[in-house]
Amino acid sequence: MTDTSTAATPVAPLSAVLGALQDPVRLEMVRRLSNAGTAMRCASLYDGINKSTATHHFKILREAGVTERLVIDGQTYQRLRREALDEALPGLLVSITEAANRAQG
What we know:
This protein is α+β, with helices and mostly antiparallel strands. The protein is built from 5 helices and 4 strands, in the order βααβαββαα. It has helices spanning about 15-20, 25-35, 50-65, 80-90, 90-105; strands at about 5, 40, 65-70, 75-80.
């Protein structure tokens, strides 16, 4: 199995992370990643948008330091940078995910 990841971007300041998470599509991507607890194939993280739009959303999350891109056996995955986020912004990810889960019902 071949596993490569992009270089980790530092977690952005709080305002930039919140800015990345304010979009409903990106928030849903993060919610799904958080609930899965592991890297997920990109296509399983979104519904109702095209691939180029999803790629744009993934880029914003990566640039904010929220996620990282992995390529495993030629397949592209996204992984939540849980430890880095918890270190930089303690409790934020848990709070955001719990609120997003409640909103989903």
